[in-house]
Amino acid sequence: MSMLQDAKDIISESITAVLPDVAVKRALARHKLSGLVYVVAIGKAAWKMAAAAHDALGDKIAAGVVITKYEHSQGPIPHMEILEAGHPVPDENGLTATKKALSLVENLTEKDHVLFLVSGGGSALFESPLTGITLLDIADITKKLLACGASIVEINTIRKHLSNVKGGRFAMHCAPAHVLSIVLSDVLGDSLDSIASGPAYPDRSTSQDALLLLEKYGIDLPPHMQAALKLETPKTLSNVSFEITGNVTALCQAAMSASKKRGYSPIMLTTTLDSEARDAGAFLAAIAREIKSSSQPATPPCALILGGETVVHLKGCGKGGRNQELALAAAKGIDGLSDVVIFSVGSDGTDGPTDAAGGIVTGSFAGQCREAGLSLDQHLQDNNSYPVLKTLGGLIVTGPTGTNVNDLTVLMCR
Amino acid sequence: MSMLQDAKDIISESITAVLPDVAVKRALARHKLSGLVYVVAIGKAAWKMAAAAHDALGDKIAAGVVITKYEHSQGPIPHMEILEAGHPVPDENGLTATKKALSLVENLTEKDHVLFLVSGGGSALFESPLTGITLLDIADITKKLLACGASIVEINTIRKHLSNVKGGRFAMHCAPAHVLSIVLSDVLGDSLDSIASGPAYPDRSTSQDALLLLEKYGIDLPPHMQAALKLETPKTLSNVSFEITGNVTALCQAAMSASKKRGYSPIMLTTTLDSEARDAGAFLAAIAREIKSSSQPATPPCALILGGETVVHLKGCGKGGRNQELALAAAKGIDGLSDVVIFSVGSDGTDGPTDAAGGIVTGSFAGQCREAGLSLDQHLQDNNSYPVLKTLGGLIVTGPTGTNVNDLTVLMCR
Predict the structure, then answer these.
(1) Which of A85, A211, B193, B254 has the greatest number of C-beta atoms within 10 Å?
(2) B279 touches A at CB < 8 Å
(3) Cα distance between residue A14 and residue A6, in whole Å
(4) What ipTM, to 2 d.p.?
């Protein structure tokens, strides 16, 4: 099997492993849910996650509420009510839908399970302000805080204390039923109290924190909002458990398994790559040269796995994306090496404003550039990775994949 | 022992291991030279290397010729003639000195050894043109080739064929005596036929290559030079062996030993790092985060070792160097991590136009910046790493070390 074919298989297996439905089924396989299951699914991938839960659990599901963005549902799912609402700006449909979810979980017993399926966009779609507070109140205080230069963490501290579902309060409504959260995370670092503002996770921020912020920024609130801020969010929750899945770590772990299966000893270098794209490529190429010359840090056949999201500081006006640029820069650094492949690919199937998901190069790519009269340096300088990769067959094209958990970068040596 | 103390010890042990005298003694310890030894030492470190050989071999040395740059010798060495000559432009003193070296090695027997000590600058200092050719002839053709845009490899192809010592010809003069070359290399990649134009290494370029270059660039040479170019350089040599030492690989290997001795499992990532300094720092920080969160790619305590030479594309007008900038960028990426140290240091003891050799940071460095009211981002943007490192005790200062084998960068986790 050629290394390029191996690479394609690794890409396809890795992305498949983090698709919402695959991720939900894999997570459910690890948790035995006895008794009746009530599903609440929120976020842009809510429909897919709920459908996968139905596939996996069937009639164990008593009922469910699915809250997703407009035009993001794909038809009926047995036992579930599918609702669409506003994102990124919350709207009345979101409030109504969230109230339906709250009714669903009130009055459950300790034998029941709430399966809480969370994906990106959940914070806007899943909202029910405390009694007396309106969406307008929340929009208003948010605007004031932004104007004062408050951080997103500070803004969320206030918002959580004004909400009847955020900051762990949703899990309180579910009690005594147990809540299993399955979280599809596109946030580097995976802080559970920040994803969707943590409806089923103990809140780290306190009522006092919220009140001090008003003081800090000199913001005067009407009495009904001041009163709301004085109510504490839960600091411990005994009825919750979590499964973070379909995130960049899962993407990298899938790449490790897929590499191993094809005979490449896998090494995970990082899941939080965030440097300039071209320099990540140069760095990886420097490791490739060492592997080929001294079998360090790994003996071929091997695969070094990286996840994260690099950045590109545009200087030219060419066509490309961060993954394509990383690959092109790497091509320069592995010029002439045999049995080396480096690829980088966006898990959502898109890289920059192009129809490609990323780029893939070998040690002979730079030579092919020279033969074709294409200057690798010039294309790099112009942020113009797409045309040269396209001409020499170095584009990775997957089409939209239905997931978005950052990028996967792999160095393969044989 | 604190990690910072460990780091300082690792830096000092690593640089000591690549000092010319230490490197020569270590190399000699691996080779048993029976019979009489004739020393020919060339290059800027020739005196130090020859003195080290005398320390190691004593009266086994029958005689020696040391050819170094003006003001680079430091007194007499028993049995050796110390000669100084022109560098980087060769001069008559270089020719005379080289002829003395040639006389020394003529008429040796197969029981004798020539110990050939090579360091940077050897190409200019060690030259003896073929009969009939003058230094002026060589300067003239070099100028013409440069004007035509010829590459340094092409220029050396011509020069080797005009020389009586380059391109392996020195080793021919030594035969039947055996030649052990000990090469102190400051060239990334260590190509033996290019270091000092390879006096004791089989030449890869042919007489035909040289003649074709004249055609390619349309250069007309006088008959005596044409005739010289038609003489072939040796393509195989049966009387030579090599020891490359005091190079960046030796620097990294010493860092590995020093780390291991202090309880950090060492991993060599690369000896040819060449990316943008700040992004190498960011990349390394991303690996640090992974090690601390998932014990991948290595379980602490561990040390990841990198050698090479990063680059800085200046945007600001601050004070710093590539090693200091790498360290400062890394500080940002390891913000808040405990038991993490990243340092980067130039083996010659200087980094950019500063009195520091490099920078060293921990996970608390970024917090110390905030407390001191210093903006890490702003200093990075201004290429102004020196002042902030100096203020917070993050400079590495060694003074001139007497060697130059690129930079050493290490990530330590405990």
Answers:
(1) A85
(2) yes
(3) 12
(4) 0.73
